[in-house]
Structure formats: structure tokens, C-alpha cells
Amino acid sequence: xxxxxxxxxxxxxxxxxxxxxxxxxxxxxxxxxxxxxxxxxxxxxxxxxxxxxxxxxxxxxxxxxxxxxxxxxxxxxxxxxxxxxxxxxxxxxxxxxxxxxxxxxxxxxxxxxxxxxxxxxxxxxxxxxxxxxxxxxxxxxxxxxxxxxxxxxxxxxxxxxxxxxxxxxxxxxxxxxxxxxxxxxxxxxxxxxxxxxxxxxxxxxxxxxxxxxxxxxxxxxxxxxxxxxxxxxxxxxxxxxxxxxxxxxxxxxxxxxxxxxxxxxxxxxxxxxxxxxxxxxxxxxxxxxxxxxxxxxxxxxxxxxxxxxxxxxxxxxxxxxxxxxxxxxxxxxxxxxxxxxxxxxxxxxxxxxxxxxxxxxxxxxxxxxxxxxxxxxxxxxxxxxxxxxxxxxxxxxxx
Amino acid sequence: xxxxxxxxxxxxxxxxxxxxxxxxxxxxxxxxxxxxxxxxxxxxxxxxxxxxxxxxxxxxxxxxxxxxxxxxxxxxxxxxxxxxxxxxxxxxxxxxxxxxxxxxxxxxxxxxxxxxxxxxxxxxxxxxxxxxxxxxxxxxxxxxxxxxxxxxxxxxxxxxxxxxxxxxxxxxxxxxxxxxxxxxxxxxxxxxxxxxxxxxxxxxxxxxxxxxxxxxxxxxxxxxxxxxxxxxxxxxxxxxxxxxxxxxxxxxxxxxxxxxxxxxxxxxxxxxxxxxxxxxxxxxxxxxxxxxxxxxxxxxxxxxxxxxxxxxxxxxxxxxxxxxxxxxxxxxxxxxxxxxxxxxxxxxxxxxxxxxxxxxxxxxxxxxxxxxxxxxxxxxxxxxxxxxxxxxxxxxxxxxxxxxxxxxxxxxxxxxxxxxxxxxxxxxxxxxxxxxxxxxxxxxxxxxxxxxxxxxxxxxxxxxxxxxxxxxxxxxxxxxxxxxxxxxxxxxxxxxxxxxxxxxxxxxxxxxxxxxxxxxxxxxxxxxx
Lengths: 399, 529
Hints:
By secondary structure, chain A is of the alpha/beta class. Chain A contains 15 helices and 13 strands.
């Protein structure tokens, strides 16, 4: 039986308190304080690395900075930030406890960050010593859902019962009134049977039927009928899992209304977390949301965003992204050496495959480790802008 | 003169008229003199004078009523006025007397139930026979509402003042730009409402009302009224962290307020002078200034405010390292609260938190006994923090939760964490972290936190709970179909399969001390994944 670790942060005014504990062995608990100055410094560094706009930046500027010049642009600078964040956010005693818990099978580390630490890619963090181990090497990193969500009335959908069912694939739905190159335009580009993604789904369709009903995988992309009623009908067919690739909007405003976080379907109005709740849409056991910052629930007051809505709807494992993933077109524009490499497609395929694994969260971690090692060994096509962005929330014993 | 708060001259003039009026044998004018004098005494907190005026008016009206009832034929023979004129006098001055009674109950005695009943009598007095008195009636009703609402706020009963403020705002917004009477109500109402907004944490909403009141008062040349808007803006600046602006405004406001002899506002000025001194660590100055504030509050017998200024003064003791003196003041403050019928559990929670701050300061000053002192501090602070934080989660509205966190719970909760951390109690720190994250995260927490000592006397009381706080704390969890947030207390939290639910003792203390059920009576939640 693998060890389970819990890492929690609590922002209280000018200090952030943290605890790391081993389930079943409370005497080993470690606590520490992250000072305001360390926290602010860490977040500032991180924001320089991520493709989300800072201050007056445009989206284009932000994507260019992240790909071409920011700390995630090269393995050397990425390693520096990984160590810095590792030292600022985790106390030496916490690293020590993590090292003591190294085992096979790997320990599962559940993280519940504080609101301000919502976008931290925990698995990427490195220890500041000669070994420079990454957190993802010491443990499989998962995200914990808040207890108030887990203990709400919900009817979880069970993977073991659904695993042979059909996956529901919503790929880049066409938001009405948006040109392909506009803000809510296409994230995957023009559909074609020749793309790596289309071929991946063709392969999947050979092995099992999928939802919606299509004759060829290219019909899965850029659908104009994928609106709310359509989604409701598809979910009623009890899919084994859901893969959504498209736009998401974070809830905005100072007060924090996470239930306004939304997915964009082929619909005039975005589908908010609150809509998902009130429609009581039955969610499949596993969901992947490859969208702009769709995993940013912890940024908001009370984690009641999309992930929470999906857990309440029955999901037990949700993989989401911590920040906006640059599209393939954006990536190639600012990384000339990349050629026709498509890191977005690579990440989508990896997550889609991982979600067929018995332990989907651990499988996502495995892919992240592989990518991290490629990157560490100098393969700049394995950009952390993609692999580090993935965060998997797991409840009810899912791993 | 009364509108301009030139009350001494007004009073002298009124008294000088007395002789002439008696010579003329004009009871109607005499009644007007007493009504106006009563109003002057009321606003200057000379409540004996109000009672005396009320007695004179009541006696006089009783005589006229007996004439009209036909029970006093002797006097009736001497009266030259028509029945209609007598009825007119009775109607007009009964209302004026009722206004004084209402104001007296609210302001002097803090008897808000009597004030409410009095206000109802005044409002219901819908005698339509004298249309020429309708405008005056409307004026009196709104004026009385402002006095009642302000008195409620003085006693921390902001929630109960809300319906009154709504009526006041409706009345003053509907006024045509015009008479002195209208302007008087606008200035008084907008100033009072502005203060209400500041004290309930709505600084942005307060600003335009205070600006508007100030501009109108200035246009009229009403110096005291102008100064009072400056004082309220100073409190808003302080609450918003702008000390320089607060200092400028309160200095500007003080002379007119002192001259106007508004005891409560004079004390409030001294409070802010003291806070400003404390902010530059001028402890002796701060002590002296707080001392002035305390003296004036004792003069007008405001137990809640004496209680608060004692807590504030104890910060000076703490900074001087005189913890015994600080604890003594806190004990006196507790005694005042015990004997005050309108005390609430929130005031006790803040008091305990403050006593915990004294213990914590003692620990820092005396490393040898630090562990004991910090343990005592935790015993005081943790239950208080659980109680105020549980209220935050009883609020259905996200904005309301934010206000409560900003003005009440965040600071107390942060202090509980700090004490647990300084104590070196890993178990308690991890339990607090667990409790905190079981709720979901607190992203909208106020990030720039004010120092402890700035809060005591200026404690704001958000009004977002519709019911009494204590009732909300004990309420059942709400469950709504589409609601994403669990409201109300959480069940006990068990964070490890090998241990019992966390913070049992502190939860029990919170219930014992504040009557707050910080835990729902449901099976424990396991919080390990």
C-alpha cells in the first residue's frame, strides 16, 4: 500500500502557514511558515515564466515572453526557478520528510494550495542540493479537493463500472461569432485528418466507439452543435470519461466568485460552474479539461470553480491546466527551432492516454516525469509550459 | 441658529423671549420656545434639560386638552382662541413633544425599544386636519429616524438600524433642493449614514454621502456640520489605512466639534488623536489623548465606548511593557460589558482575543515563561477565532463574507495561527491549517493587514447577518440545490485515521464562552484523501 502525504497551505493575512503530513503517522507532521516576502517573490518569478499576461502585456506578448525569454524558455533558467520556488515554498524539514517517504510504489502527495499559490506547478519544484530532485520524482503529485466539496451530497460515477464505456470527446467547439483567429477562436487550428491529434483519435476509435457518434475523427473537431442541450444529451449516455479541449474563462473580480468560472461550448453564453451545478449534469468518473487556466480553482475564494462543480457532478478524477496553454501556432511562432512540432497535441494525446490507465493521476505524473527528464537532458521541445501545467484532482481514493 | 449649531446664542435668544411672551400671554409661542430648547438640549446631550422642557410642554398641552374635553370650564372661559386654534396647537406640539421623547429614549438611555415605540406613535400621528403642519411632521419623522438609527449604531446594533437608514435615505433622496429644513436633514442623514457605512466596512459607499453632506453644510455655512463630515471622513481614511489624510481631517474637524460640545464626537476626535500618536510610538501623548476620550465618554455614560477606550489604552500599557496595567484595564472593560444589557458575544470574543494579545506580548518579553504564556494566549485566541470564523461561513452572500473577513474574522484568525506557531505547537498549527483548508481557500482574504492596535477602538461591525449573530452561529447548515458553498458550521474534522476529531477542546471553549456552535452535530468528516 503506497504512502499518502498531504501538503496544505493556508493564507492568513501576512503569513502563509503550511503543513506536510503522512496519513496514519501524525507524529511525523511538519509545519512551517512562508513569509509574505518569500511568497510574493515566488509568485512574481512564477508569473514571469507563465504565458498569462502580466500588467500591461497583451496575450501575444505574454506568449512570446514565456516561450522565448522567460524562465521556462530554457532548461538552465527553469532549473533555477524550480530550486528557488522549492526553497521558498517548502521548508528543509518538508523536503527531508518527502525524501524519507521515497518508496516503491511512489507515495501519493496531495496538495491543497492556498489561493495565492493556485498556479504553482508543484511537481516541478526542486530541492536545493546536489541531487536537485524534483517533487514529481519523490512522489506522484495530485491535487486535493476541498473537504466541503468532497463531503457534499453527490453520486460519484465509478470508473470500474464505466471503463468500457465510450469516451466523450469535445474538441475545440466553435464558439458562435468568433473568427478562428480571434480571442475565443480555434485552439487546435483547421481540422484535418492528417494532424497528429486526428490520427490519435482515429486510433482510439479503432479500439472503441466514442461520443459523439462520428464516422471519422475529423468530425470531432470544431463542432457547431456542441451546445448545452447537446452536452446534456451526451452526458446522459453515461460516457466513460470526458475530454474537453477549448477555451475556459477564469472567474474575475476581487471578491472571488469561482462559480463564474466557465467553459466555452458552441454556445452564445459560456457554461459556468454555477450552470453545471444547477443543471445537475451527471459527470463521468474522469474528466480532462485542456483549457485556458481551467484548473485555477484555488485562485478563488472558496474553491467552487469548474473542478469543484465536476466533482459535485460525480467526477472522481479531473485533470486540468493551471494556466493557459499556448496553441501550436503560438508556440511555433516564437520557437523557430521547433519546426512542425506540436507540444499542445502531444500534451492532449498524453492526457487522453493516461485517462485510460487504471490509475490515471499516476499515469499523468509518469508522462510529466518523462517530459521533465527529456527537458532536463536538453530537449527543448519538451517545454514545461505544457507538462508542468497539468494538475490532477482526485477524490474517493482515485489516484 | 439651531441649524447652524449656534446653540448658545439660540438658547439665549429663546430665554430672552420668555419674558415678552409671558407678558403677551401667548402659550403657543411659549410651547415653541420649549420645543426648540428641548431640541438644543437633546443634541448637546443635556438630557435633564430635555426632560424639563418636555414636562413644561406636556403640562401646557394637558391644560388645553382639558379645555377641549370640557373638563376645565374655569380656564375655558379665559381662553380667547377658537377651538380650531387650540386643536392646531395640541396637534403641533404633541408631535414636537413626541419627537423629543423618542430622541431622548434613543440617545440618552439607549432604550431602543422605547425609542422605536415612540417613533411609531410619531409616524402614526396622521392627523390630516392641518395640512399646514404636514411638512413639519415629515421633518420630525425623518429627524427622529436619524436619531434612532444613530443611537443604534452607537450601541453596535447596526443590523437593527438598517430599515431606519433605508427610510432616511429614501426621504433625503426625494427632497427637492431647497429649504433649510431639507438641507438640515440631508446633512444630518448623509453624515449619519456615511458613518454607518464606515462602521460596517463599506468605505466606498460612505465617501459620496459624506462629500455631499459636507458640500451642502459648507454652502450653508454650517461649521459644526461640516466638521462632523470631516470627522467621519477621517474615520474612513483611518479604516482605509491613510493615516496622513485621517490626521489632516481630524485636526481640521476638531475645533468646531469641541466648540459645538458634542461629547461623543469630541471623544471620537481624541480617540483618533491618540491613534495617530500611537502610530508614531508617542506613547505618553497617546495615553493622554485616550485619557481625554475616556473622560468624555464617562461623562455621557457610554459603557460600550468606555469599554473600547479601555482596550485601546491597554495597548499603550502593552507597548510600555506594563502587562499588569493592561490586564487590569481589560478586566475593567470586561466588567463594563458584563453589566451592559446590550452586550453581544462578538464583543466578548474580541475582548478575549485582546487579552490573548497581552499574553502573547508577555511571552515575547519573557522568554523563560513564553510557553506558558503562549498556551494561555492560544486558549483565548483560538476559540475566539473559531467563533468569528464560523460566522463568516454562515453568510450566504460572497461579498458579505468578504466584508466580515476583512473587518472581523481575518485578523483574529491570523492571530490564532501566529500564537500556535510561536508556541511551537506543531499539532495545533497543522490542525488550524486543516480547519482552514476544509472550508476551501480564502483567496479574497485582505492581504494588507492592519496592526492589532489600530483595530480595538475602531472595530467595525459588518451588518450582513440578518439575524442576531449568536443565532446565526448556532444555525443549522443550509443546503441549497445549486449552492456550491457549504454554509453554517462544519461537522467535526478528523484529519487522520489514528486520531480523534481536531480542536475538540477549543471548539468546546468557543461554545462555552460565546454560545457559538462552531461544529455541526453531524458525523465527523475525514479530511485525508
